[in-house]
Amino acid sequence: MSFLRFLGPSPGPPALPPEIAFLADAGVDPELLRRAADLAEASGTDAATALLRAGLMDEEPYYRALAQALEAEYLDGPIPLGMGARFPDSLSLGMAPLVLGAGAPAVLAPRGRQIAELLAGRSPRGRMPAVTSPTRLRAALFAAMPKAIAEYAADDLEAKAPGWAFGTRPLGPGLALAALIACAGTLAFEALPPILALILVVAAQTLFLAMAIFRVGALFIPSPTVPPPVVAPLNDRDLPTYTVLVALYREARVVPRLVSALARFDYPLAKLDLKFVVEADDAGTIAALARIPLPARFEVIAVPDGRPRTKPRALNVALPLARGELLVVYDAEDVPDPGQLRLAAEIFARAPASTACLQGRLVIDNPEDSWIARCFALEYAGLFDVLNPALAHWHLPMPLGGTSMHIRTAVLRELHGWDARNVTEDADLGMRLACAGYHVGDLPSATIEEAPIVLRAWLHQRVRWMKGFLQTTVTHGRNPIETYRRLGRLDTLCAATLIPGAVASALVCPVFLVWACADFLLFEIPVATEFWRNLPIGVAITLFLSGITALILPPALGCIRRGWWDLLWFLPVMPFYFALVSVAAWLAVIEFVRAPSQWNKTEHGLSRTSRSGVLRPRRPAA
After folding, report:
1. Is this prediction's pTM over 0.85?
2. Within the chain, what is the greatest distance between any pair of CA atoms?
3. 329 with 345: CB under 8 angstroms?
4. Is residue 514 helix, strand or coil?
5. Buried-exposed string 387-423: b where 16+ CB fall within 10 A, e elsewhere
6. Which of 121-125, 195-199, 387-391, 487-491 has the lowest mean pLDDT?
7. Burial class (CB within 10 angstroms; exposed 0-12, middle 13-18, buried 19+) of 299
8. Which of 172, 211, 542, 612 has the maximal Cβ count within 10 Å?
9. pLDDT digits (tens, 9 = 90+) for 16-53
10. CA distance 160 to 229
11. Three-class SS of residue 447?
């Protein structure tokens, strides 16, 4: 007698999860369902999500079969939403009321484990609602209330936290008062007592010196460009769901490269939630996306028309739809490292809850295109490979980079998303994170970026950045005592040097630099017998030397860390480059008064060279 007879009958394959088991009765291949169940087990997610996100089954037939299993009506045409439908609540719940007489009280578009609950009969109560797919429910809601969605995206932050929003209040009276005070102070300066004038001069010099100290101090913080190996990497089951948001406007040129880059992520397919956010009237970008067979994990969201037309407004539309515990924003021209999401998830898992955000390293890949692109590459090397990692090490406020910004989704929602009227929403969000008691960490993972290659494009972009810094200064400077109370002394000093200080230095430093050079070269430096009378000129000399050091050494160290030895010879051009930043700052002041929320669009996909080869140059037309 065989020993196997004592073991009893073979147990057979394990039962399918209920959220996909009903599909076997609908004629779906059992082997495909078993693959979905195995993928769900390996990924630590539900089988319905694994089935749909991995592209094993399309959304439409799945939800049609679900409706049949629930003996509910399936809505595949126009959905007559009732007056109780709301954005974003209806999409978050996956349920919206229908008009009276529609045949069902509501329509459901359940996801994940909600499906198993429905099939088990645990919800809903009363008459069975109709069923539709999440995509159809979103389309119906966007079609029914575009104005309400546009207003939500533009005004939610101001409605819920007005002190943190740039807002729609007129700037004219405040700017006029500031100009009047500045003029009066300038005229009265000569009439001030010598000791008071001395204190004011030294105080202003000290503020600019603090800017240099932060940048020079960053040189002494180790910051490898290659992430250290993780001792115990997270397995797929422990990884959180990750939402990727990319706001696109007039970006048809780079869509193929972008889709290819995002499709290469080393991350469980069932836990990827990738969303392209486009303006509803941007026919070119929408058509470019339609020409590409997007995998199931990709989704295209058309933002209803509204004002202001800015990137943060578009992101605010997508934020309530994010399904991930973590979220990252990329720009249209970005090519992130395939392992970036996994690395970020592992750092978040080991970091305290106060580390709410990680800033990735932005790397310019086309410096050979022009002299302005070389300077841009040097500037980014100093910022993302030297200064930002040091700020993260010190737990000081950091103006975020706007792209490769990874954040805990719950924290972003707690802060009510982005300021739709701030054209550097990244810098503003960095300050709000600091004011709320959160820290920004460093993510040593590269995202390839494309620099502007002509001066006009660079200037438009830099004017927008400087204008956004002015907006952020106004927003968080309305109540300086409260901001100081939230940040503390050192954080307040750091924030003042990075945001208003950056604009102020750009406005005045070139003038003072020429003035100082003229004094040093053409005139004899006066020497007084008293220490206090020598203090201003001593601080001025220190500021001059440290300022040059702060301009040159961080980019130089960044190049060394990247191995860009061929760019070091271009460092003497950087003072002239920063003189152009001054031009941008003055133009930003003018635009700040005339059109504070106007978004200066940067064109992408124009690079002619690529160090890594990922920024493929355009082929000439036949």
Report:
1. yes
2. 114
3. no
4. helix
5. bbbbbbebbbbbbbbbbbbbbbbebbeebbbbbbbbb
6. 195-199
7. middle
8. 211
9. 899 999 999 888 899 999 999 999 999 999 999 999 99
10. 42
11. strand
